[in-house]
Design a protein that fits this description.
By secondary structure, this protein is mainly alpha-helical. Helices cover 57% and strands 0% of the residues. The protein has 8 helices and no strands. The chain has helices at residues 2-10, 15-18, 23-26, 30-37, 54-61, 71-80, 82-87, 90-119. The protein is rod-shaped.
């Protein structure tokens, strides 16, 4: 009777576990029960086949398409293709960030220069033209 029960229980386990000499001792142990209840994974930790916890899988299933208040922004952003071209790869991402910082800081500086010129129109040295004195014709 024990062999029939063990064969039924061991059928769901991996072949490596079945070939172990102490597998009969495991047949009634808590380890066997735990191994029987879990599903075999076809990939290790961090592999694409590794499953996330159930709450994360349920959270990622909720895509909120058409529900979110910012759906218009996400659709417009995805239509630009910026993510696929610049943000998907780490070197491209860092390069994109550096160039955006350079262009952004230059634009920020030029914007404040123009505002300063507009507010101080006529008060800056550049706005006051130099008038050459009239030369005497005595010489």
């Amino acid at each position: 009777h024990f062999k029939q029960v063990f064969r039924r229980e061991a059928h769901s386990l991996c072949p490596l576990l079945q070939s172990l000499p102490f597998s009969r001792m495991l047949a009634r142990s808590r380890v066997l029960n735990a191994l029987r209840q879990c599903k075999p994974r076809r990939g290790g930790f961090g592999s694409p086949k590794d499953h996330e916890p159930a709450w994360i899988e349920n959270w990622t299933k909720n895509r909120r398409e058409g529900i979110d208040n910012m759906d218009w922004f996400f659709r417009a952003f995805n239509a630009t293709g910026i993510y696929e071209v610049f943000l998907k790869s780490s070197p491209r991402f860092y390069g994109f960030m550096v160039w955006c910082a350079i262009i952004g800081s230059y634009s920020w500086s030029r914007m404040w220069d123009h505002i300063w010129n507009y507010v101080n129109q006529g008060k800056l040295y550049a706005h006051c033209p130099y008038v050459y004195p009239v030369e005497d014709e005595d010489e």
